[in-house]
Amino acid sequence: MSAAMGRKILTLALALCLTTTVASAQKPVASIEAQVKRCWTSPSAQKATSVRPITFVLQLAPDADLVKASTDYVPANAVERTLRDAAVRAMKRCLPLRAPDAPYEEWKETRVTFEMEKASGTSQFELPD
To answer: What pLDDT is attached to residue 104?
Structure first.
């Protein structure tokens, strides 16, 4: 095997290790986000194309209990207010969360983003129960 080929193999192996490390570090956060999103029902509005996604930062205790949820999102209109309220309901509905099998430091602060989906043919909002 040539030295150049050896370097390529080493570089590829290193890249695969880094990719695996990054992916495993993201798994705990994805686990928390998936739990919350299972409780999410998107309100719908025909003209929701201008509605911004809303991101919450969840501060979690070691047992995955929600300590605090915060956002800097300020609704500009009734549609955005509906989105924010639906996101808050989704987070409350999903409690208690299950703690990921990963070090607490990796998921103690988790970002969850909610987006409104465009409805097909209605101008009324459909709020989750």
So the answer is: 94
